[in-house]
Write a structure and sequence with these properties.
Elements: E1 18-22, H1 24-29, H2 36-40, E2 46-51, H3 53-60, H4 62-69, H5 73-86, E3 87-90, H6 99-102, H7 111-120, E4 124-125, E5 139-140, H8 142-150
Parallel strand pairs: 1-2, 1-4, 2-3, 4-5
Length: 158
């Protein structure tokens, strides 16, 4: 048997999993076939979460998505189910204790994302510039997220 003293312990995925709250604007891009979110969300080194209301927001944009992407309602449903395999949608009652603290942010539409991030002590992945103006939780846009967490996963790719 080889001597392993002085070497780090074998890689364990469980030790390196990062919790991340995903904003609706990123989730919506999952419907585009070649989107970055389609490549990142399935990665096992992350636990992705979003408030349950994000699914309601996605449904409210359904006709726009169908028209822009040119997919059928059946394809929309299939992609939405696929998205739910990679993102855990959390009901309001699981993070409601953090809503009051999150209510100080300027854009009240983002309170649930901030509250969930506070509950999980997790950063938010969002392309919403307004969300970056608060100081309660760290927010990364897609480019920053890739640079911080995935740089080695996407070498030499745009």
């Amino acid at each position: 048997m080889k001597e392993t003293s002085g070497y780090p312990p074998p890689f364990s995925l469980e030790q390196h999993v990062q919790d991340v709250v995903v904003d609706t604007n990123v989730l919506l891009t999952f419907f585009w076939k070649k989107s970055v979110s389609r490549r990142i969300l399935p990665k096992r080194e992350f636990n992705f979460f979003s408030p349950q209301l994000a699914l309601e927001e996605i449904n409210s944009h359904k006709s726009e998505i169908l028209k822009k992407i040119g997919i059928s309602e059946e394809e929309f449903q299939k992609i939405r189910e696929e998205l739910a395999m990679f993102v855990e949608f959390i009901p309001l009652d699981e993070y409601s204790k953090f809503l009051q603290k999150a209510s100080c942010i300027p854009d009240k539409g983002d309170i649930d994302f901030i509250a969930l991030a506070l509950k999980l002590s997790a950063p938010i992945w969002s392309n919403d510039k307004e969300l970056k103006k608060q100081s309660l939780v760290q927010v990364f846009n897609t480019q920053e997220f890739i640079k911080k967490f995935l740089y080695t996963s996407f070498p030499n790719e745009p």
